[in-house]
Specification:
mainly alpha, DNA Binding (I), subunit A, 45% helix, flat
């Protein structure tokens, strides 16, 4: 499935990046990090190993607001890239399907990771 990108101009994306920088300094975000849990895989991490992920990516029209930002481990954030939630779910489901079809279940993705 090829991602569809919103018609976002560079200035709009730069404004959202600036808002994200401000949001990272907020007490709300610091509390999110202090919980130490990745939104996608559910694993525990030290706060300095979590990144801010936009559920709807900025490149696809997402905003830097509390309702659209979650802490994510670097692995999940890198794997998710520009995916929308429905695309991420399909990606995670494909890992589960591949794992079930391969001898020995060799996708290399843990059951925790597939929980998404």
């Amino acid at each position: 499935m090829k991602p569809v990108f919103a018609d976002t101009d560079e200035m709009a994306v730069n404004r959202e990046r600036q808002k994200a920088r401000q949001l990272r300094q907020s007490q709300w975000w610091k509390r999110q990090l202090a919980r130490g849990r990745c939104h996608y895989c559910g694993r525990s991490f030290p706060p300095d190993q979590l990144t801010m992920d936009h559920i709807v990516p900025m490149a696809r029209g997402g905003k830097s607001k509390k309702g659209n930002t979650v802490p994510a481990c670097k692995e999940c954030n890198n794997n998710k890239k520009y995916m929308l939630p429905i695309e991420w779910e399909a990606y995670m489901a494909s890992l589960t399907e591949n794992d079930a079809q391969s001898p020995g279940g060799g996708s290399g993705v843990s059951k925790e990771k597939r929980r998404g």
